[in-house]
Write a structure and sequence with these properties.
It is a single chain. With 381 residues, this protein is an alpha+beta fold. It has 3 domains: 121 residues, Butyryl-Coa Dehydrogenase, subunit A, domain 1; 100 residues, Butyryl-CoA Dehydrogenase, subunit A, domain 2 (Beta Barrel), CATH 2.40.110.10; 145 residues, Butyryl-CoA Dehydrogenase, subunit A, domain 3. It is built from 12 helices and 8 strands. A 4-stranded mixed beta sheet has the order 1-4-5-8. A hairpin with a 2-residue loop joins strand 2 and strand 3. The chain is globular. The chain starts with a helix and ends with a helix. The mean pLDDT is 94.
Length: 381
């Protein structure tokens, strides 16, 4: 279907977003190998997504967005990963920031200006939260009207093509107490530099270059949150609940694509025919484990109709680890099913194997998640 026809569907409010992403996905799949080989960011894919207003699809209609549900966005990201897992993962990073702001808008009435800007301009939001977590890093110097922020933020997905970094930094306040200040910085601000350091095993086209901030002015009005440094703040109960289902959608889609390839080849594969059925059966169990626990994740989000609770965060993070493990296992078993041919780079499965390895590095990595969960369960009544 031609792009202008797809665009008409969006303009008239008759968009079938899943069908749209399947149409765009054909182009994404055609470029995926090239982007992976070069490590370049998926600029062309992003331009197509912008043209069809995907970056605002989850924003409420009254703010200029598409008004789709959180669960539907999870499914769109899952489908996108069938065609290009790097595009799906990068896109999920923008969407999790949108999702947190949508929750805020629905429950507190705040956040509308940012959501309206995203909808109007198709702004791409960049998250630096994965490495920041409870402590954050960088320096804030108080000046008249704001702060001068310096620091380096790694793993900033889509920094190569994004418009605004949503970030944080520690600050020793007037009461001699360490806080973490959260704020947004337009990427065009003086002192912001995107480094050329994203040369990695998998998810190579996510444009996750580090961002260097050198005495970047942050006005007082840009500070959206000040929280105690090093402590788990209730804001994480919102962020984790909306973000992790979206992010893990990319890995569930990657696992599904791997299973599809293994089954397609396995039906025609003569070698090791006697135990092919066992491998495929085991692979299917792993895939169902990933899919069902992923669905349990976005069920907890309940289309933004939830009250922040640490018990939900515990479940979300535990499910995230399980989904990551199951997705990685599915792809590994897909490679076992078709044997040595999966080792060739010309086989898409080889790229999927490298891409899925990133699943475990999202907050919280396995051992940190075990500790986080265990400490809270032991401390509970």
């Amino acid at each position: 279907m031609e792009t202008f026809q797809l665009n008409e569907q969006v303009k008239t409010g008759n968009a079938d977003w899943r069908s749209l992403i399947n149409e765009l996905g054909k182009d994404f799949a055609g470029r995926a190998g090239h982007y992976d080989l070069t490590g370049a960011f998926v600029f062309e894919n992003y331009e197509q997504l912008k043209a069809l207003r995907f970056f605002s699809a989850m924003i409420p209609v009254e703010l200029g967005g598409g008004g789709i549900s959180h669960a539907e966005m999870c499914d769109i990201i899952r489908i996108m990963a069938h065609y290009c897992s790097s595009t799906a993962l990068a896109f999920s990073m923008h969407q999790h920031l949108v999702a947190a702001t949508v929750w805020k808008y629905r429950h507190t009435g705040e956040g509308a200006p940012l959501l309206q800007r995203v909808a109007k301009e198709q702004l791409v939001l960049i998250s630096t939260g994965a490495r920041d977590w409870l402590e954050s890093n960088g320096e804030m110097e108080k000046v008249d009207g704001g702060y001068l922020f310096s620091g380096k933020k790694f793993f900033a997905s889509q920094s190569a093509g994004g418009d605004m970094a949503i970030t944080s930094a520690p600050w020793l306040n007037a009461g001699n107490e360490w806080q973490v200040l959260h704020f947004g910085v337009p990427m065009t601000t003086e002192g912001v530099t995107v480094l050329d350091d994203w040369d990695v095993l998998g998810m190579r086209a996510t444009g996750s270059q580090a961002i260097q901030f050198d005495k970047v002015f942050v006005p007082d009005s840009a500070i959206s949150l000040a929280r105690p440094k090093g402590e788990f703040h209730p804001v994480w109960n919102v962020v984790l609940t909306v973000a992790m289902p979206l992010i893990m959608s990319a890995y569930v889609g990657t696992a599904e694509k791997a299973a599809e390839i293994a089954l397609s080849i396995g039906k025609k594969y003569q070698r090791n025919e006697s135990h092919m059925a066992y491998i495929i059966g085991k692979l299917n169990n792993s895939l169902i484990g990933a899919q069902t626990q992923w669905r349990a994740m976005y069920a907890l989000t309940n289309n933004f109709d939830f009250q922040p609770d640490e018990n939900i965060s515990i479940d979300i993070l535990s499910l995230k680890t399980n989904v990551a493990d199951a997705a990685q296992q599915t792809v590994s078993e897909a490679m076992e099913a078709i044997g040595g041919q999966s080792f060739y780079r010309k086989n898409v499965l080889e790229r999927l194997f490298r891409d899925v390895q990133a699943a475990g590095f999202h907050p919280l990595p396995r051992w940190e998640q075990y500790q986080f969960t265990g400490e809270r369960l032991l401390a509970g009544s």
